[in-house]
Amino acid sequence: MKSPENTSSSLYLSGRKQKFIIIAGLIILLFCACIYALNAGSYHLSFDRILTIVNQAVMNPDLLKEIPFEKTVVIDFRMPRALLAIFTGISLAIAGCVMQALLRNPLVSPFTLGLSSAASFGSALAIVFGAFLMPFIPKVFQNGVIIFSAFLLGWFSILFIYAISRMKGSSSATLILAGVVIGYIFTAGVMILKYLTNDEKLREITLWLMGGMWGANWGAIIIVAPITLLCFLYLESKAWDLNTLSAGDDVAKNLGVNVNRLRLTGLFVATLAASACLAFTGIIGFIGLMGPHIGRMLIGNDNRYLIPCSALLGALILLISDTVARTIMEPVEIPVGVIMYVIGGIFFMFLILRGKHRMIT
Amino acid sequence: MTLVVEGLSVHYGSIRVLSDISFSLPLGEVLCIIGPNGSGKSTLIKTIAGILEPKDGKLLLEGQNLDSISRNEIAKKIGYVPQDFQFLTSATVLESVILGRRPHVQWSLTDHDLDIVNNAMRMLNIAPMAEKMLTELSGGERQRVFIARAIAQDPDFYLFDEPTSALDIRHQIDVFSMIRAISEKKDKSVLVAVHDLNFAYHYADRVMLIDKGRIVCIGTADEVMTEENIISVYGVPMQFISTDAGRYVIPNWKKAVLNRGCCTNTKKA
User: Fold this and answer.
1) Beta-bridge mates of residue B26
2) Do A12 and B109 touch (CB under 8 A)?
3) At A56, which CATH number?
4) How far is the C-alpha of A354 from the C-alpha of A356, rounded, in Å?
5) In B, which residues are within 8 Å of A296 by CB distance?
6) How far apart, in whole angstroms, are the C-alpha atoms of residue B160 and residue B42?
7) Which residues of A touch B119 (CB under 8 A)?
8) Is B2-88+154-230 a domain of CATH 3.40.50.300?
9) For the whole model, what pTM was predicted?
């Protein structure tokens, strides 16, 4: 029989076990979704074949030369696309999760704070005006210019939100409204760019604003993967500090946390993760809201578990959505950003409606 | 171990809120701070808790300046329970108490950490509601959760900022009894700001009376809480009455109301 004084620790330990199971389950699900995504499309292979090709690509790339077509479809097209969806899902979800903790508000995310719009304006700027610069920039760095520009404007928008939360408090109404306003302003900026630019670039920008995984190639993955992973590790290492913020700044300070520094570096890293991905995918809404919220329902508020759990959920949602977007109307592709607007909008509505109880103050 | 405050002054912008505060707090003592609204009680507590930066003066722990000790080490020594509570709408009781272990853990909670969390929750009688969400609790239950978090932090010095402001009389007595228990059984010190003069009178080892950011008087309850002192600081006629259960300080309502025409400045009992 359990002694009564052990109840809270046994609760904690059984809770922890359950959290590990949930995270392991999500990893398995993500792996399955990934294999499915590599197979989905007009050219079908067997699952065995997919596994063999992936295995060969890792173990012995030379063998792939004998199957050039399959290699091109799976390794050159579908795999970077699946990986980009995964990394973007991770980045946006951890960015949302951490922003929610830092600003102590469950409704903030890269999308609702206007970061997505700002970052897309930054990228559009680089796409349109970068053309003048591009010939002078080595090809490897060209993507870097877009990311840097996206990041710069994204960071600017977050600093703006941060300043507002310092001045006016971080109530939902204030932050969401400020986010909407920032969104409008940068959307206007993008419209001006669209109006001024030529037809070819116009199409590029329009497609890109809808948000999709067209930009996927190994060059993008090589940039996005390390940024995402480093940002994830950094934010995960701050999980305890983020937890203390839930009790308010004063208590967090008393618990030994340098609150101002945590808030600035945390927002900086979250913005970096989100804008690096947004520079390749365009605006993908609501992942930063859905990942953390579903995560919180599954696994609770402890950021040590919530950050990885949200990351996996974000990756899973975006990968599945993109695979559906790619295959549902074959051969026509729907931009996954459009799908996310629909799913995310409904989800947001759901949060508002049941907010009284749990999610929204 | 002793906490020493030397010549402390604190400013909000250009406004001086505390000036030249000096006192020391040895282990095992309950020191109550009393004083009118705006006298600087909360500011003093927040400054010692590391939330506000002092402009002048020193805070010393065992002769060592707090500036030279890392935030984390200070957090192991000084715990703080705020006057008003903030929490996530989805936070549970257990999660909230565990936060107190933050200065002590690297990443995982050890059995030792969990024991301390258990004891804290038992001490405050909140173990049965470990899994409940804070939004489901009453004001008094929440207050106990936050006190439990400070106990889980296991500091040597506890700072309470009006811990009984949201509580009914029974829970007020519970909290003060627990404060006594912390100092007596665990040999820890408690610095507590209170509005209720009778609690200060009956539960404190020493009382500090502050007004307009300065210490008026510090010493035993009988030394500090004289009629003259209290009348001069609060501006309300007060008197002590003796009962079977000890001495009590009460405002002279009739006189207070006659003098002021209303009772806006009388304290709530």
Assistant:
1) B2
2) yes
3) 1.10.3470.10
4) 6
5) 90
6) 9
7) 5
8) yes
9) 0.87
